Amino acid sequence: MQSNFLNLPKKLSGYDTAKVVVLPIPYEGTVTYGKGTSNGPAAIIKASQQVEFYDREFDCEPVDNYGIHTLAPLAFSNNPDKTVEQINNAVTPHINAGKFVVGIGGEHSISAGLVKAQAESTGLPITIVQIDAHSDLRDSYEGNHNNHACVARRFLDNENVERVLQLGVRSISTEEMSFIRKNNDRVRTWFIEDIDTDEWQNEFISLISRKKIYLTIDVDGLDPSVIAATGTPEPGGLSWEKTIEIIRLLTNSAELIGLDCVELAPLAGMHASDFAVAKLIYKTLNLKYNEIKES
Ligand SMILES: [Mn+2]
Hints:
This protein is α/β, with parallel strands linked by helices. The chain has helices spanning 10-13, 40-48, 80-96, 110-122, 151-156, 174-182, 200-208, 240-253, 271-289, and strands at residues 20-25, 68-70, 100-105, 126-131, 161-169, 187-191, 212-218, 255-262. The model has no long low-confidence stretch (mean pLDDT 94).
C-alpha cells in the first residue's frame, strides 16, 4: 500500500497521537455474486488521497483535531469462522488503547468480528446501526453461518448487542421478514420507502439516544447512482444527502464507538464509487469529532 488514509503528514498519522485507526480488511471468502471486494481497502485508500481536508460544514480541516493512523492490511486464512476470530483478536488491542477503529472491507462478514470485539471490550450494551440494501438476517447461507448474507444475525449472537437498527433495506427474503416480525424487540428495519418520509426520524432518535452505537455501512445501501461498484447492487437506494443525514442524527444523539465500511468492489474506470466511500468515511469522522451534544 502506497500511503495512509487521506495521505496525512506524520504529525497527523502517527499511532500514538491519532485518535482514529483505519484497519484495511481485504477479506473476500463468501461473496456470492460480483467479485472484487478484496480490492476495496486499497481503492478506498487510493481515492482518499483526493479528498479535501477542508470541510465546509465546519469551516476547518477537522482531521487536525483527531488524526488517523492507517494500520497494515490484515492477512487471512480462508476459513470464514476463523476470519471472524482473527479480526476480533486484531481489533481488540486498539479498542483497549482507546482508539476509534474504522474497518474498511472487504465483504460484510468482517463486521461480525469488528462488532464482537466492540461488544466484548466495552462490556456494555451497544446498538448496531446498519446501512444496507439487504437485511443480512439469514441464519445461514450456502451452508455457512458466517456468510456475508448472515452478518446481522451474527451481531445478534452477542449478548451485549441490545438492538440492530437497519436503514435502506430493499431486498429481503421470506425467512428474514418473519425473523424481523418475531424479534421486534431486537431488530428494527426501516425500508427504503420509510426513509422517504420524515416519520422514521423520531423513532430512530429515541432508539439511539445516549447509547453506544456501532455503525456498519454496506455501501450497497446507497443508490447505485452514488456507489455502483459493489457485489450485490440494488436499485432505488439512499441518496448521498440522506445517508449523511442519518449519520448526522446519529452523532448528534448518541456516542459513535466504531465504524466499518464494506462491500466496495472497485471497477476499472469507475473511481467515483471509490471516492464516494473515502469521502463518506472522512465525513463520518468529522461529524463524530464535531458532535454537538445537548446537555
Ligand atoms: Mn448489502
